[in-house]
Amino acid sequence: MIQKRRRWFYPTNVGKLFLGEETLVSCTPKGIMSMLESTGTDLNGKNVTVIGRSNIVGKPVSILCQQQNATVTMCHSRTKDLNAKLADADVVIVAVGVAKFINGDQIPSGAIVIDVGIHNIDGKLCGDVDFETASEKASAITPVPGGVGPMTVCALIENTIIAAERI
User: Fold this and answer.
1) End-to-end distance of the chain based on CA atoms, in angstroms?
2) What's the confidence (pLDDT) of residue 1?
3) Phi–psi pair at 25, nearest 5 degrees
4) Residue 6 falls within a domain, yes or no?
5) Residue 138 lies in a domain
6) Residue-wise pLDDT tens digits, 16-27
7) Which CATH number is 134's domain given?
8) Hey, how many other C-beta atoms are within 10 angstroms of the C-beta on 84?
9) How many domains does the chain have?
10) Residue among 38, 133, 155, 82 at smallest CA distance from 115
């Protein structure tokens, strides 16, 4: 029996994603977009700030947001004056890989916050966003755990079904 390891981050898939062609999208970015869509969030004309430039989450989700006519600002852990980049954000997607990297003082009032990170700090799970302070300013915020993770799993199942149907 030949076993195939299915990954969504092949050069062909990345190229198709960049060109806006139909392709299998990495599970976490796909889950994030599904979450936004399911809540009725229209990205058309919105300012989206993505914090994190990974090839698995940050870059693909920025492309997907641009394809929905969002204006995307890409940031990372070394971005100078991050607060200024966040000031006009309607949606903030944080996938920087640093526990509580973003706090409520940095979140624009009414912004939607999607926290992709998950960390175990002293036996407690937390994300890249300080949930307690950010939830006071955000109109909606994903919890950690229980936010992006389940949507990633849903996207994995969907991608697996699509891939199986192509065989």
Assistant:
1) 15
2) 34
3) -105, 145
4) no
5) yes
6) 888 999 888 999
7) 3.40.50.720
8) 10
9) 1
10) 133
Tell me, yes or no, whether 10 lies in a domain: no
Q: Is the pLDDT of residue 3 over 70?
A: no
Domain assignment present for residue 158? The answer is yes
Using a CB cutoff of 8 Å and minimum separation of 24, what contacts does 32-38 make?
32/57, 32/61, 32/64, 32/93, 32/114, 32/116, 32/148, 32/151, 33/61, 33/64, 33/65, 33/68, 34/151, 34/154, 34/155, 35/114, 35/142, 35/147, 35/148, 35/151, 36/91, 36/112, 36/114
Residues 62-90 have a mean pLDDT of 98
**pLDDT, average across residues 36-44:** 97
**For position 15, what pLDDT does the model report?**
87
Please say if the pLDDT value at position 9 is more than 80.
no
**Interval 111-119 mean pLDDT:** 98
Q: Where does residue 140 rank: exposed (0-12), middle (13-18), buried (19+ CB within 10 A)?
A: middle
Give a three-class secondary structure readout of 63-103.
HHHHHCCCEEEEECCCCCCHHHHHCCCCEEEECCCCCCCEC
For residue 47, the SS3 value is strand
* CA–CA dist 115, 144 (Å, integer): 7
Which domain range does residue 50 map to? 28-166
